Amino acid sequence: MSELRLLDRVRNAIRVRQYSIATEKTYLGWIRKFILFHGKRHPAEMSKPEIESFLSFLAVKRQVSPSTQNQALQALLFLYRYVLEIDLPWLDDVVRAILSRPTCWSPVRIYGPFSNCSGTTTSIQR
Questions:
Q1: In terms of Cα–Cα distance, which of 107, 66, 83, 69 is closest to 24?
Q2: Domains, the chain, ranges and CATH?
Q3: Which residues, 6+ apart, have CB-to-CB distance to 13 below 8 Å?
Q4: Residue 63 CB burial class (10 angstroms; 0-12, 13-18, ≥19)
Q5: Under a CB-based contact definition with an 8 Å cutoff, are residues 42 and 6 in contact?
Q6: How far is CA 2 from the centre of its chain?
């Protein structure tokens, strides 16, 4: 019997642990992107520097949110820990995604469209 391909091994490891189908699809997507980002190299040939460069790329070039970057990190940690059975050193040099600040609206921007209203609409807006 031939050895299972990497993504089939990932799929099996996810299903054995009874992760949701959505998690399976998400993890497989991130692992595919990681492999393609590094020119289709096998993850067993890569380690900390390649993972850090991929996660930093997501934050800097793709400008993903912190939760998206963390999702990619978790997918890669799952791959290395449970499928490849490789312990990774701590990832210190990852450029972390920055949470964007919400836009603060002034009262003029909020109430401006209602400035021409009168009667009951005026009392409702305030």
A1: 83
A2: 6-99 (1.10.150.130)
A3: 78, 82, 83
A4: exposed
A5: yes
A6: 33
d(CA 68, CA 31): 13
Q: Which of 45, 50, 37 is nearest to 91 (CA)?
A: 50
Angle at alpha carbon of residue 89, lines to 85 and 90, rounded to 5°: 125
pLDDT tens by residue, 80-112: 999 999 988 887 788 888 877 666 666 766 676
Distance CA 97, CA 65 (A): 6
Q: pTM for this structure?
A: 0.76
